[in-house]
Design goal:
Elements lengths: L17 H4 L10 E3 L2 H5 L6 E3 L4 E4 L12 E4 L3 E4 L7 H5 L5 H9 L15 H8 L3
Antiparallel strand pairs: 1-3, 2-3, 4-5
Length: about 130
Amino acid sequence: MTTLVAVEEQEVAEPVSICQQCGACCAFFRVSFYWAEAPQRGLPETCIEPVTAHLAGMAGTNRPVPRCCALQGEIGRQVSCLVYAARPSPCRELQPGDEKCNRARARHGLPPLPPPGTAPARRDDAKLSREPG
């Protein structure tokens, strides 16, 4: 005789990316791109402002104190992008730890991140290097 045991599903929390804790770039740069990219990506019209005849921008980023209309949350704590899947090319190109990222983080009083492609230091590294081989 086979007995079936029900297994409750557990929610597994996704690790929070450094970008979801930061958001500095979304409140530092003007995000402008070729106007045809907006409908191609499916960006909502309410998130787009004209910059020039050929450039559009994310609403809110072409101001003296920029903040993208799609940015939700508190910079440096927890943020999200309301249009993440449809975000324009400048947002896709910026990488955690690159020069632009670290300039935006500095403006908001956040420490720099390691350059892209470098592994962040682990606590165990210092302990391992002190142990005799």
